[in-house]
Design a protein that fits this description.
- This protein is an alpha/beta fold.
- Helices cover about 30% and strands about 25% of the residues.
- The chain has twelve helices and 18 strands.
- Strands 8, 9, 12, 13, 14, 15, 16, 17 and 18 form a nine-stranded mixed β-sheet that branches. The protein has a five-stranded mixed β-sheet with strand order 1-4-7-6-5, with helices on one face.
- Helix 7 links the parallel strand 15 and strand 16.
- Helix 3 crosses helix 11, helix 5 packs parallel to helix 6 and helix 7 runs parallel beside helix 8.
- It is elongated.
- The two termini are about 40 Å apart.
């Protein structure tokens, strides 16, 4: 199936497509083409996951040698080879990975699909090529109207904001990994859904998606028209790159590919009207954080940390990053705040205690609450049943629910009363 998209003039050489059910593959395809072109993607991967022996070459493949190889493919209309016919628009080679684009008219896209597939297979067989992707591109119609320039704009026009039907978008972030950020995001989202709100949960951690396991989902999203349908789970709607790749498949992508995949999960998914969306951010302060800050109207960010100094140091960087991108920091959560022995109820502060509260006071942001270190939280997450749904009356579930109420009240003043009017949903 063909997937189409547009490249913005001045937007660089790549247009990125995240992996999805259209592709039939496990990783994304990269299309190339000139700015202002309409791009038609027919994304397929030719990756042999079994043993494969590559021929040794004295030199790596180049765009010129690969262009010559494509002279073996004939244009069905003119009978000439596709290179002589001027159909090969661009070829890019990087470390044995090849991306090529073929020019065609949109009305001929179906006719050119076999040519595209043949060219892709032919390139994949060339010595030194580890993987090849070929896409179809077509020039933008001359009659297309240009977008009106923004007032007082300097440089390229800003992209329109995504997810405009979502009432409030909240990023759950951390300065480092291993602090329980994804567990917190999932349980906050489920707690908000139990309040009767329409909730979306977006996994923005492209390199390490964990929502499929935590939500107990192991299927691909349905595609309707040009949009994917988010998967329902525990009263909310969820989308993750992990729904479209095997669990053990590594996402070996550069930053632009990550940003493109993230934008597609926001703009090419039928989220519908939501009261609130929780975004599980990757750790750190990199491309995904900048993409979210620039492409959606974030209502605020929640920073998750453990009590020890080294985690708080990284959490501090996360707070500063959101402040610099003009995203309000809603507050800090202290996860793994303390441990209570399930046998004797002895309390042990393994990572210290109170560090996040003190840091919140120092930074001038609100302390949202503390979540204990409990075995049930981990086992529930591994089983795909968030603790808020599995045991809503547990100490951990009550802690997440209390934080969820605070977050909802902060992003939607007066909304706490609205949410309380809905029936409480408990999933057993």
């Amino acid at each position: 199936m063909l997937v189409t998209g547009w490249r913005r003039p001045g937007g660089g050489r790549r247009w990125l497509a995240s992996p999805h059910p259209w592709s039939g593959g496990r990783v994304a395809a990269i299309g190339t083409g000139s700015p202002g072109r309409h791009i038609t993607f027919a994304v397929r991967q030719h990756i042999d996951h079994g043993p494969k022996v590559f021929k040794r070459m004295s030199t790596a493949p180049t765009p010129d040698t690969l262009r010559d190889a494509l002279r073996d493919i004939a244009d069905p209309v003119t009978g000439r080879d596709i290179v002589s016919a001027g159909l090969v628009e661009a070829i890019e080679v990087r470390g044995g990975l090849v991306q090529a684009s073929l020019l065609t008219d949109r009305t001929r896209a179906a006719q050119m699909e076999p040519v595209r597939a043949q060219a892709e297979k032919h390139l994949a067989r060339q010595p030194g090529v580890r993987n090849a992707t070929v896409v179809l591109t077509s020039a933008t119609p001359a009659t297309a109207k240009a977008a009106p320039p923004a007032a007082h704009a300097h440089g390229p026009a800003a992209k329109p904001k995504l997810l405009e039907q979502v009432g409030a978008i909240v990023a759950v972030a951390s300065g480092k990994g291993g602090v329980g950020k994804s567990t917190t995001a999932v349980n906050l989202a489920v707690a908000l859904a139990q309040m009767g709100l329409r909730v979306g949960l977006l996994d923005a951690d492209i390199y390490g998606p964990s929502l499929p396991r935590m939500l107990g989902l192991a299927r691909k999203p349905e595609v309707r028209g040009d949009l994917m349908i988010p998967l329902p789970a525990w009263g909310l709607q969820a989308m993750s790159i992990g729904f479209m790749v095997e669990e053990e498949t590594p996402m070996i992508w550069r930053g632009p590919m990550v940003m493109g995949a993230l934008e597609q999960m926001m703009g090419q998914v039928d989220w519908g009207a939501l009261d609130i969306m929780i975004v599980d951010m990757p750790p750190g302060t990199g491309d995904a954080q900048l993409t979210m800050a620039q492409r959606v109207a974030l209502a605020g960010a929640v920073i998750v940390s453990t009590p020890q100094d080294i985690a708080l140091l990284d959490a501090r960087r996360g707070v500063k990053m959101f402040e610099r991108t003009r995203v309000p920091v809603l507050g800090l959560i202290e996860n793994m705040s303390y441990y209570c022995c399930p046998n004797c109820n002895h309390r042990a502060e393994i990572f210290g205690h109170g560090g996040a509260r003190a840091e919140a006071d120092r930074l001038g942001v609100e302390f949202l609450g503390e979540v204990p270190l409990l075995l049930d939280i981990r086992t529930a997450s591994d089983a795909g049943t968030p603790i808020v749904a599995a045991d809503p009356d547990s100490e951990a579930a009550r802690a997440f629910a209390a934080i969820a109420r605070i977050v909802w009240a902060k992003v939607n003043p007066g909304g706490a009363a609205k949410a309380a009017a809905f029936p409480r949903i408990v999933v057993s």
